[in-house]
Amino acid sequence: MTKEVIIKQSLTEKTLTKVSMYILYSGRTKYYLLLVLFIFTFNATSAYWTGIEPAENELGFIPLITMIIVVVSLFFNLANRSKKSFKKNPRYYTNLVFTINETEFKTEGENFLNACKWEDLVKIKSTKKWHLIYFNKMQASIIDRSQLDTLQEGELKEIFNSIKSKIKVVN
Questions:
Q1: Is the entire prediction scored with pTM above 0.85?
Q2: Res 34: pLDDT
Q3: Longest dimension (CA), the chain
Q4: Mean local confidence (pLDDT), 79-97
Q5: In this structure, are residues 44 and 61 in contact, taking their beta carbons and an 8 Å threshold?
Q6: Which helix (DSSP H) or strand (DSSP E) does residue 105 occupy?
Q7: How far is Cα 60 from Cα 45, in angstroms, rounded to an integer?
Q8: Which of 103, 97, 101 lies closest to 141, judged by CA?
């Protein structure tokens, strides 16, 4: 007999924004940003602390400041886009029904139904707050763990363990 979990939930703007940030910065992007930030910081501080007078054409701390501005503006831009997306299409985030079994993952909402076999998905990542089911590297369905009861959580864990041969499951 195939196990099946049916989850009904609605997401909030805040949750959507947090998950968007998590997905963006959980990949390689954060390492690239940190590397560039480190290089700019090292360059600027080494020139400053060695006492070498910068030539008129040297930039000094400008690349470091620019990098910080870019990172902060990326953060606010993503937060703003998440809020706009939520307001523009609330049907994709509210009153959702997820049906999860050992063969497929289904999402039902107002006027739409998506069904995917596990083999067609990239991975499942479980965090303290969410289960993220990735369609590609940057797009995932969000299952909010705070809206699950302990029985659903246990059944989901069993299903995720049983499909490890079909999809990458990261805890």
A1: no
A2: 77
A3: 76
A4: 80
A5: yes
A6: strand 104-109
A7: 8
A8: 97
